[in-house]
């Protein structure tokens, strides 16, 4: 028992659609996030550089020390918030001014020389506090009386971090919402798009033995489903044809088996109605043996038609000498032909690409048929004629001309030109049908002509492919 779960194709496609939409939107969001992050960093770095340049210009004044001592709040106001820091100090000495309302640890960074203009590459980015980045820039200035001073300014980027975190969350939420919406829309669209497939499935479910002639319609069906519809209709056509053939074979089998069974039953019932001599019982048993032999041949031929494996026949093909094979047939049927005063002539050359046993059975059936219906004191010709495409094997005999209307049906199962031959113990109506099956297995052709008292059966075997 198969316990595997079968998931809806509509659901699968909707989920795939949602995942692709989420991946696309998330990728777009990440790209925009990176661009926004770069712009914000550039903005913040520019603000730090501008502040450092202001301090440079301001501290170049000769009254710098007095200004630092008397108006430190001026520098505090320049910073603007509690997340900024400012340090003014001589190298290696205690700071002249330290503005650090947030008590942020000021890192030691190398100051930019006096004659060097500040740029974005001079800004240092550090991990900061609790994962919040800290940006700082240091510059050297000449303040006159105080000599060389180092100005260090920096800022904890809490605002930028919060803004980027909010943006990330917004991108994720919007991507999820959009994916859910697109999944629902995709589900509805796929469900509607698969409506023709469900309609076809319902139509196919209604086709059974009683209406095998019915076919799936393609009106209004998407072109992607047309090959499937054509293949399904072709399969239905094959099934219908096979079912008709099976019914015909069953009918023919019942008809063919009824005659020998009725003969056996009738003769045996008559024999049992009264005492008979040993000679009469022996004649009865001999007659019954003929009927049983006919039944055995019929069943053997039917089993051959049912069991012949095309793949096995193709694997066992060989290159056979046409001269040897026709000569073999002539030798095999020489005695039987002599009994009815028929001579056999075998001629030809070339190579036959065939399975040996099937080839010999086909030729044997044709030869037996030709001897059975051949005219006394006539000749039976077995001939092989090679050409560029393969080789033709023909079996010709003289006898009664077969009417043209019967020729196309000679290779059908149980078909006979003369119904009076139905009771013949040597005939079961399957010999030529077996020949047709063998030729179909080899991908060859078979045909028959009958004119002016000469009947010729011809088999064509294709040459071996390179």
From TrEMBL:
Catalytic reactions of this protein: ATP + protein L-histidine = ADP + protein N-phospho-L-histidine
Record-listed E.C. numbers: 2.7.13.3
Spans through the membrane: 12-33, 169-190
Domain of life: Bacteria
Keywords (A to Z) from UniProt: ATP-binding, Cell inner membrane, Cell membrane, Kinase, Membrane, Nucleotide-binding, Phosphoprotein, Transferase, Transmembrane, Transmembrane helix, Two-component regulatory system
A cellular component annotation (GO) from this entry: plasma membrane
Compartment(s) where it occurs, according to its Swiss-Prot or TrEMBL record: Cell inner membrane
GO molecular function: ATP binding; phosphorelay sensor kinase activity
HAMP domain ranges (all copies): 191-244
Pfam families referenced in this protein's UniProt entry, alphabetically: HAMP, HATPase_c, HisKA
Domain Histidine kinase: 252-465
SUPFAM superfamilies to which the protein is assigned, alphabetical: ATPase domain of HSP90 chaperone/DNA topoisomerase II/histidine kinase (SSF55874), Homodimeric domain of signal transducing histidine kinase (SSF47384)
InterPro entries to which the protein is assigned, alphabetical: CztS_silS_copS, HAMP_dom, HATPase_C_sf, HATPase_dom, His_kinase_dom, HisK_dim/P_dom, HisK_dim/P_sf, Sig_transdc_His_kin-like_C
Enzyme class: transferase
Matches recorded under PANTHER family: SENSOR HISTIDINE KINASE HPRS (PTHR45436:SF3), SENSOR HISTIDINE KINASE YKOH (PTHR45436)
Protein function: Member of a two-component regulatory system.
NCBIfam families assigned: cztS_silS_copS
Protein's name in the database: Sensor protein
């Amino acid at each position: 028992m198969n316990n595997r779960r079968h998931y809806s194709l509509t659901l699968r496609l909707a989920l795939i659609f949602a995942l692709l939409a989420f991946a696309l939107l998330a990728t777009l969001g990440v790209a925009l996030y990176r661009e926004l992050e770069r712009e914000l960093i550039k903005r913040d770095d520019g603000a730090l550089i501008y502040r450092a340049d202001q301090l440079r210009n301001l501290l170049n004044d000769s009254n710098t020390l007095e200004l630092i001592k008397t108006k430190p709040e001026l520098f505090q106001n320049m910073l603007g918030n509690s997340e900024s820091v400012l340090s003014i100090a001589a190298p290696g000495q205690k700071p002249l001014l330290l503005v650090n309302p947030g008590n942020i640890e000021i890192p030691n960074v190398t100051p930019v020389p006096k004659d060097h203009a500040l740029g974005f590459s001079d800004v240092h980015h550090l991990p900061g506090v609790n994962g919040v980045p800290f940006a700082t820039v240091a510059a050297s200035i000449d303040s006159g009386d105080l000599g060389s001073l180092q100005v260090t300014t920096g800022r904890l980027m809490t605002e930028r971090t919060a803004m980027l975190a909010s943006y990330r969350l917004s991108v994720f939420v919007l991507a999820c919402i959009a994916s859910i919406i697109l999944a629902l829309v995709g589900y509805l669209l796929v469900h509607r798009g698969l409506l023709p497939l469900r309609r076809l499935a319902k139509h196919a479910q209604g086709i059974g033995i009683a209406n095998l002639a019915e076919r799936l319609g393609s009106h209004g069906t998407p072109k992607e489903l047309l090959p499937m519809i054509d293949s399904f209709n072709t399969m239905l056509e094959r099934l219908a044809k096979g079912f008709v053939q099976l019914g015909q074979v069953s009918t023919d089998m019942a008809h063919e088996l009824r005659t020998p069974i009725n003969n056996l039953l009738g003769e045996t019932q008559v024999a049992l109605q009264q005492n008979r001599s040993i000679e009469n019982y022996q004649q009865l048993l001999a007659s019954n043996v003929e009927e049983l032999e006919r039944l055995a041949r019929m069943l053997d031929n039917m089993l051959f038609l049912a069991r012949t494996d095309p793949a096995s026949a193709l694997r066992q093909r060989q290159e056979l000498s046409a001269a040897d094979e026709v000569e073999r047939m002539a030798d095999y049927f020489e005695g039987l032909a002599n009994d009815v005063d028929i001579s056999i002539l075998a001629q030809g050359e070339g190579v036959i690409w065939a399975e040996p046993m099937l080839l010999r059975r086909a030729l044997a059936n044709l030869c037996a048929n030709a001897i059975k219906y051949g005219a006394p004191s006539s000749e039976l010709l077995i001939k092989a004629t090679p050409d560029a495409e393969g080789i033709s094997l023909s079996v010709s005999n003289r006898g009664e001309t077969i009417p043209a209307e019967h020729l196309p049906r000679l290779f059908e199962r149980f078909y006979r030109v003369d119904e009076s031959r139905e009771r013949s113990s040597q005939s079961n109506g399957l010999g030529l049908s077996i020949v047709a099956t063998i030729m179909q297995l080899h991908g060859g052709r078979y045909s028959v002509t009958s004119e002016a008292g000469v009947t010729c059966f011809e088999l064509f075997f294709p040459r071996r492919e390179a």
